[in-house]
Amino acid sequence: MEEKLTYEAAKSELTAISKEIENEEISVDELASKVKRASELIEFCQTKLKNTEAEVNKIISRMENPEN
């Protein structure tokens, strides 16, 4: 995965790949590598969302229970 990849950049790249595939703009020779990249981006986005959710839940929990 690229260094400093952001969720927004990954989502944007994933959207571009999706549009290329839908519009049949990708050659058969490139298709496998684009699908692989899309898979990596999806995994990155899912991980980012899960980590963010966990962090937000932890913050909310501390706000609700400040003595802990």
Automatic annotation (TrEMBL):
EC numbers, comma separated: 3.1.11.6
Coiled-coil region(s): 7-55
Keywords tagged on the record: Coiled coil, Cytoplasm, Exonuclease, Hydrolase, Nuclease
InterPro entries: Exonuc_VII_S, Exonuc_VII_ssu_sf
Gene3D superfamilies reported for this sequence: Exonuclease VII, small subunit
Family: Belongs to the XseB family.
UniProt-recorded name of the protein: Exodeoxyribonuclease VII small subunit
